[in-house]
Design brief:
The complex is a heterodimer of chains A (113) and B (111).
Chain A lengths: L3 E4 L2 E4 L5 E7 L5 E8 L3 E10 L2 E4 L6 E7 L2 E6 L8 E8 L8 E2 L3 E5 L1
Parallel strand pairs in A: 2-11
Antiparallel strand pairs in A: 1-3, 3-8, 4-5, 4-9, 5-6, 7-8, 9-10, 9-11
Chain B lengths: L3 E4 L2 E5 L4 E7 L6 E7 L6 E7 L4 E4 L2 E6 L4 E6 L8 E8 L5 E3 L3 E6 L1
Parallel strand pairs in B: 2-11
Antiparallel strand pairs in B: 1-3, 3-8, 4-5, 4-9, 6-7, 7-8, 9-10, 9-11
Classes of the chains: A mainly beta (113), B mainly beta (111).
């Protein structure tokens, strides 16, 4: 998985609680992405980062926030988890922008009860 | 914005046969079209990509074709093997940070 780890790999939480997912890379890639994967929807971009402290919204950003204080770490926070946020979350990295290979992490399966 | 549609959602072929997955896109500004393979329990992995200035690209048993006029592109896998069984995603990008993925095709290769 190209030097990308995600933690936790599995999490079960309750509606209304905050949740933070972590993506850590050892490749020193500038660009990092958070996607969610749901049946029938493929992968949808939540947020992305184009440098330390530089982030922007993707297709489905409502209810999510991100932070990137170091090149290697990109955090995704669900401010108040809802059942509609039950999904598999993937982090990805790339050396340049969207027209370049994205390397995906192993994913985090999140269940919101 | 860009929309990418992918068909079929499920495809079953006999080992040794060919498999074809088709995608259409809506934004004529899209210029980069990657294909990703996802095995069970893993993240997607790029298998081939094509840019808008090229009509076809091959890599061993895998090929991708692009028809810009019709706004569709296809993945062709020849001589399929059981290890080709996976979910395949097509995607389109207009040159920015936002890559739009299709819904995926689950390919079964029967031995």
């Amino acid at each position: 998985d190209a030097g990308i780890t995600q933690s936790p790999r599995h999490k079960v939480t309750e509606t209304g609680t905050p949740v933070t997912l972590r993506c850590h890379q050892t490749e020193n890639h500038r660009y990092m992405y958070w996607y969610r994967q749901d049946p029938g929807h493929g992968l949808r971009l939540i947020h992305y980062s184009y440098g330390v402290k530089d982030t922007d919204k993707g297709e489905v950003s409502d209810g999510y926030s991100v932070s990137r204080s170091k090149t290697e770490d990109f955090l995704l926070t669900l401010e108040s988890a809802t059942s509609s946020q039950t999904s598999v979350y993937f982090c990805a990295i790339s050396t340049s922008g969207g027209t370049d290979t994205q390397y995906f992490g192993p994913g985090t399966r999140l269940t919101v009860l | 914005g860009e929309n990418v549609e992918q068909h079929p959602s499920t495809l079953s072929v006999q080992e040794g046969d060919s498999a074809v997955i088709k995608c259409t896109y809506s934004d004529s500004a899209s210029n980069y079209f990657p294909w990703y393979k996802q095995e069970l329990g893993k993240g997607p992995q790029l298998i081939i990509d094509i840019r808008s200035n090229v009509g076809e690209k091959k890599d061993q048993r895998i090929a991708v074709t692009l028809n810009k006029t019709a706004k569709h592109f296809s993945l062709h896998i020849t001589e399929t093997q059981p290890e080709d069984s996976a979910v395949y995603f097509c995607a389109g990008n207009t040159g920015g940070f936002k890559t739009i993925f299709g819904a995926g095709t689950r390919l079964f290769v029967k031995a």
